[in-house]
Design brief:
Layout (H helix, E strand, L loop, with lengths): L2 E6 L3 E6 L4 E5 L17 E6 L3 E6 L4 E5 L17 E6 L3 E6 L4 E5 L20 E3 L5 E3 L1
Antiparallel strand pairs: 1-2, 2-3, 4-5, 5-6, 7-8, 8-9, 10-11
Length: 140
């Protein structure tokens, strides 16, 4: 059982196995239980984490999330926008994804950067995102 990547939230771990599937363990409320989305976690390219949730980019560019909904574990509000995802970064409580067209989609706790609506019109041709552990994203 080879591992490709391992990430941790504040009380859980998630790992991409050699076959592109994912296992998680630890506090089930903070991402340690991915059983609700296990069938979707195939062909995983990358995992990113907040303090209480995980986001996985699949080979087709879509995203699967699990863990604490307040920390980005529920991406249902933006799920239809999460296509052709190239990269995900995370603060302590939110995720931001760069799409193939250079636009950005953010979700999770608003106080941790999960709402980019105030600057959305400026988030074009983004090549990189960095995040603080607190609640801020920077895009170039």
């Amino acid at each position: 059982m080879g591992l490709q990547q391992i990430q941790c939230s504040s009380h859980a771990f998630a790992a991409i196995l050699a076959d592109g599937s994912v296992v998680s363990w630890g506090d089930p409320n903070l991402g340690g239980d991915c059983s609700a989305v296990q069938e979707q976690l195939k062909g995983v390219r990358q995992i990113q984490n907040t303090c209480g949730a995980f986001a996985a980019i699949l080979a087709d560019g879509s995203v699967v999330t699990w863990g604490n909904p307040d920390d980005g574990g529920d991406s249902s509000v933006v799920q239809d926008q999460l296509q052709n995802v190239q990269q995900i970064q995370a603060t302590g409580g939110a995720f931001a994804a760069i799409l193939a067209d250079g636009s950005v989609v953010a979700w999770g706790h608003k106080a941790y950067g999960g709402d980019s609506s105030a600057v959305q019109d400026q988030l074009k041709n983004v090549q990189q995102i960095q995040a603080t552990g607190g609640g801020a994203f920077a895009a170039i």
